[in-house]
Specification:
Radius of gyration: 31 Å
CATH topology of the largest domain: Ribosomal Protein S8, Chain: A, domain 1
Helix content: 25-40%
CATH architecture of the largest domain: 2-Layer Sandwich
Number of strands: 26
Largest sheet: 8 strands, mixed
Number of helices: 18
Number of domains: 3
Length: 616
């Protein structure tokens, strides 16, 4: 068979396979066109998830008859006035969307030019008031000439029976509900980046979306909070960062507020929604120390870069970009997010206390028969203490204390409460330990419950990280080396990493067949049980597989150290020790969650507690 040119309609249908994957793809392209047309209001209507009908109406600058005829031709666009791809400033620019949609469905465009004053930019052609609206139709690639129509200034685009001309594509679409939700997510992304534009979304399987136009310096933040909800707003911190011409801003969730999937990660480059590997990798790195494996933070981040430093012509769907200075972008995002989380201090997710209140209420609290009255004891048992790591600061408000093991249980008088006029610190003062696992502390506004193991694990990890940042981690030689028996593969893996482990304070040597000897340990872990620590570390090293960066491996080792040296559940603590732990949490960034992303404490207000007992 000889070489021949493809039919133009077939070319458009082939292009549609890349540009228009599903109804949500068509919605994205058409709404981006409306935004490029300087619309201040965009209304979207869907039927059957968009496969039956997509209707998008805007009040943008509109088009005349000549522009309508050109707009449906392949590679015809008004968005590259200088023909430069190295400085694209519009959302659309390829000139493929409208002909692609028209080749696989029934496309109708009705548009009327909006009057522009002579003071409009040079590239906006002033049009006479009362310009006539025109309509053009494309049915599976067959074009009907433009004809006069009735329409307000702006543009209405209707797409009917999408993919009816390519039935094979219809088989790959999901159900109407799933397609409608995918289109809604597209609208949310574009609305988030354009707070000055009002949006509405209606249709089958949709609860409806109504977003008024926002104005003012905090318009972007208000739009983000409106879309992502009040719960996100309570658990989010603002991000601001700049390095030279690169700038990032937005909101990110606390590490204790996360999702099972990454659908609620909204990333923008110069106002363009993207799914970029550099940005996603920066997110993972920024939260690596603080979020549960397999969970994802909720973020809305807006990156601004000079247009000439980013290539947006990477994929027909325009969702991928390439940065000229990718490492600078990555460094900016990681630093800005970590700074924001550090500023949040000891804050944890607000969900813990709310969920506790809901569960207590659901359990029927307040419906039980009252217990017989018994006078409270006048004395209580002080529990056994534990040993903090070497150098651990004791900041109890009453007095400094040493943390030696107590051989017996003491019976001491109740401590005097702090003066009434003295404001309690953010995490309050310890009042009790229950189930030898949790610390109950009273604050000015209510109380907090602290998971002693999770909290201490975080503090030890941060101390170890700080020591490594300052150089070699201080080591303590063991009087008698600890011999650990392991299978040969585990021994080989550990010995391969012996130099790196030594930098972090763990010195190991081979000790005959089937064993290694631990000669030195990090000074902060002097009292740690060595054998289970080394065995756990061997398992972690086996999981590396050569994919993680050196820094990530180092952090994983330190996390393993911290986990094994932390206060365990079942360890009794003195009140002074509990207070020292609380004060250290307040002074440690990221202490609202442990190294695995679990919350270290939950907080409940006095008003919530009173509501549970019907006192409100």
């Amino acid at each position: 068979m000889s070489v021949r040119r493809l039919d133009p309609v077939l070319i458009d249908q082939i292009a549609a396979g890349e540009v228009i994957e599903r109804p949500a793809s068509a919605v994205k392209e058409l709404v981006e066109n409306a935004l490029d047309a300087k619309a201040t209001r965009i209304d979207v209507m869907l039927e059957q998830g968009g496969r039956r009908l997509i209707r998008i109406t805007d009040d943008g600058i509109g088009m005349g008859a000549e522009d309508l005829a050109l707009a449906i031709e392949r590679h015809a666009t008004s968005k590259l006035p200088e023909g430069r791809l190295d400085a694209v400033s519009t959302l659309g620019f390829r000139g493929e969307a409208l002909p692609s949609i028209g080749s696989v469905g029934r496309l109708t465009i009705t548009s009327r030019p909006r009057f522009l004053s002579p003071l409009a930019p040079d590239d906006a052609r002033p049009l006479a008031e009362g310009a006539t609206a025109h309509l053009i139709r494309v049915d599976a690639g067959r074009v009907q000439p433009p004809r006069p129509a009735a329409h307000a200034p702006g543009t209405r685009i209707e797409v009917e029976d999408l993919f009816y001309a390519t039935p094979a594509r219809l088989k790959f679409l999901k159900g109407d509900r799933a397609e409608a939700q995918a289109a809604a997510l597209v609208i949310k992304r574009l609305a988030m980046a354009n707070p000055q534009v009002a949006f509405s979304l209606q249709g089958d399987h949709l609860s409806g979306l109504q977003l008024a136009a926002e104005s003012g310096e905090d318009a972007l933040e208000r739009r983000v909070r409106r879309i992502l909800g009040a719960e996100f707003g309570e658990n989010a911190v603002a991000v601001e960062g700049q390095r030279g011409p690169l700038r990032v801003s937005g909101l990110v969730s606390l590490p204790t507020y996360h999702r099972a999937a990454a659908l609620d990660q909204f990333l923008f480059v110069n106002g363009r929604p993207v799914r970029d590997k550099v940005l996603i990798g920066a997110l993972k790195a920024a939260y690596a120390d603080s979020i549960t494996a397999g969970r994802h933070p909720v973020v809305a981040l807006f990156l601004e870069v000079p247009p000439e430093t980013v290539d947006v012509n990477v994929h027909p769907a325009k969702l991928e970009v390439r940065f000229r200075e990718a490492e600078a972008v990555r460094s900016l995002l990681i630093g800005a997010i970590r700074d924001a989380l550090a500023r949040a201090g000891h804050s944890a997710s607000s969900r813990g206390g709310a969920m506790m209140a809901e569960r207590l209420a659901a359990s029927g609290l307040g419906q039980f028969a009252p217990a017989p009255y018994a006078p409270p004891p006048r004395a209580y048992e002080r529990p056994l203490s534990f040993a903090f790591p070497q150098g651990y600061p004791a900041r109890a408000p009453e007095a400094q204390t040493g943390f030696a093991e107590a051989p017996t249980v003491e019976r001491l008088p109740e401590p005097e409460p702090p003066a009434a006029q003295e404001a309690a610190p953010p995490l309050g003062y310890a009042r009790a330990q229950f189930h030898e696992t949790y610390i109950l502390a009273q604050t000015d506004k209510g109380f907090v419950i602290v998971d002693q193991h999770a909290a201490h694990e975080r503090l030890v990890y941060e101390r170890l990280k700080k020591a490594r940042t300052g150089g070699m981690v201080p080591r303590q030689p063991l009087l008698i080396p600890a011999v650990v028996e392991l299978e040969e593969g585990a021994i080989a893996r550990l010995l391969d990493e012996a130099e790196a482990l030594a930098e972090m304070g763990l010195v190991i040597e081979p000790f005959g067949p089937g064993a290694i000897a631990v000669q030195e340990v990090p000074a902060a872990l002097a009292n740690t049980e060595i054998v289970p620590l080394v065995k756990d570390l061997a398992d972690r090293v086996r999981e590396w597989g050569g994919a993680e960066s050196l820094a990530a491996r180092y952090d994983l080792v330190l996390k393993t150290f911290a986990c094994h040296h932390s206060i365990r559940s079942g360890r009794r603590m003195r009140l002074e020790e509990m207070d020292a732990l609380l004060r250290e949490m307040e002074a440690t960034p990221g202490s609202g969650q442990c190294n695995h992303g679990r919350p270290t404490y939950i907080e409940m207000s006095l008003s919530d507690l009173e509501r549970l007992f019907g006192r409100a």
